[in-house]
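Materials and Methods. Structural model of NIPSNAP family protein. The 108-residue sequence of NIPSNAP family protein from Paraburkholderia hospita was retrieved and submitted for structure prediction as follows.
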Amino acid sequence: MIVEMRIYHCAPTRLPALLDRFTTHTLGFFEKYGIQQIGFWTTLIGPSNHALTYMIQWESLAAREQKWNAFQADADWIATRAATEAQRPIVERIENHFLTPTSFSALR
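The predicted structure was written out as tokens:
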């Protein structure tokens, strides 16, 4: 198992728009492409409260590449993303990390 941790750093005041896009649209695309989420978090205390952190579980890097690329190339997703950012961008920067569990990890 591989876990991908993604952190979306939003433009000021745009976190609610990102949360709405995930709730209303993105999670449906994840389901369509078999992208399995572990969880989503907003920052309670930290350097910025304009961030969304989430984790996705993958069987392998090859599976990630196939599913993620199909999702990103979906014409409906491209149109949805463009429509939700028509007035101004939502995300300023994305970080992602690929994590593998240790032998003593509860999640493997």
